[in-house]
Specification:
The complex is a heterodimer of chains A (158) and B (151). Chain A is mainly beta and 158 residues long. A ten-stranded antiparallel beta barrel of chain A has the order 1-2-3-4-5-6-7-8-9-10. Chain B has 151 residues and is mainly β. In chain B, 0% of the residues lie in helices and 55% in strands. Chain B is built from no helices and ten strands. Chain B has a ten-stranded antiparallel β-barrel with strand order 1-2-3-4-5-6-7-8-9-10. Chain B is globular, with a radius of gyration of 16 Å. Classes of the chains: A mainly beta (158), B mainly beta (151). At the A-B interface, strand 3, strand 4 and strand 5 of A face strand 2, strand 3, strand 4, strand 5 and strand 6 of B.
């Protein structure tokens, strides 16, 4: 199925400066954090984990692989972040070991990236040198009332 | 993150794809027909939890590298299909639906492209026939692919 996605009949996307901005994610990250009261699994538990972000050939998408461990449970998954020129928005898709296919609209302002999904949202802030990121996640069951889900800090190790 | 779920039993049918395959392509679009030639590999592997099959395409066509990362799953009971979401090195994001008939023949259906995939009885090879459409009504041949399992 190598060429199933060659959209020969449609206009090809072109690389934009916004794609290059994703490079700040690239690398291997060590994660530490805490689940908060809104966590449906292991609230209050310490979170440890690792994440890698790398470019898919072509420079349009970042592929992320993450595993976060808390208590006896783990959140493991793979995702992509790309830039949609039509909506002028970054889009993040995550697919995880709990069976969820999540989609987030992502915006960036200076060092702050905001992920907005239907039931989860996150504010991610990179340090000025790009070697540290902090994430504050929130969760909602109705998309209007939000409560803390987990806070994580990641250090770039490569 | 939410309650723990169990993968739908229908996802087990995707097991037959798991492995690394050598990929051969033959253009067959009615105007030109090439011979089959090796262009690279396709790899299918379950992600932890076995809800999503991750499909990585790593090929070269006309001297240019072409990569795809695709996620197949979970299972939509109402349409009896498996959502497919792919991201490629040319910047395309595409969704398709996979389904399988009683004979084990798979169909991948997208807006402008579609394929049937037939897997050999011993699961060591498979063949795909791709079609494309400009108007969503008239479908014409596009290309054929052969896959040989190497692990």
């Amino acid at each position: 199925m190598a060429a199933n996605n060659m959209q020969v009949l449609q206009q090809q996307p072109t690389l934009k400066p916004e794609h290059k901005q994703l490079h700040v994610f690239v690398g291997r990250w060590k994660v530490i954090g805490w689940n908060k009261e809104g966590a449906p699994v292991a609230p209050g538990a310490k979170v440890t984990g690792e994440e890698t972000y790398e470019w898919l050939t072509g420079g349009f998408f970042i592929v992320s692989r993450f595993q976060h461990h808390f208590g006896d449970d783990a959140h493991i998954g793979t995702g992509t972040i790309g830039y949609d020129a039509d909506s002028q928005s970054y889009i993040n898709h995550n697919f995880d070991n709990m069976g969820y296919a999540r989609r987030y609209e992502v915006s960036v302002h200076d060092y702050t990236w905001t992920f907005t999904g239907e039931f989860e949202r996150c504010t991610l802030v990179f340090s000025a040198d790009g070697n540290r990121k902090t994430e504050n996640w929130e969760i909602s069951t109705d998309s209007s009332n939000w409560q803390p889900l987990c806070d994580m800090t990641a250090i770039k190790i490569r | 993150m939410a309650d723990k779920n169990k993968p739908d039993a229908a996802l087990k049918k995707l097991d037959v794809l798991v492995g690394k395959w050598v990929t051969e392509l033959r253009l067959n679009d009615g105007k030109s027909k090439t011979d089959f030639h090796i262009i690279g590999t396709d790899t299918y592997a379950w992600q932890a939890g076995k809800f999503f099959l991750v499909h990585d395409v790593d090929v070269s066509m006309d001297g240019e590298a072409y990569q795809v990362t695709e996620f197949i799953g979970g299972y939509d009971k109402s349409s009896k299909s498996y959502p497919m979401r792919s991201f490629d090195s040319q910047g395309n994001f595409q969704t398709m639906q996979a389904s399988v008939d009683k004979e084990g023949v798979w169909t991948f259906a997208g807006e402008t492209t579609r394929a049937t995939l037939t897997i050999a009885d011993d699961s060591s090879t498979m063949t795909a026939h791709w079609e494309q459409t400009k108007d969503g009504k008239k479908w014409s041949p596009w290309m054929d692919m052969k896959f040989t399992k190497i692990r």
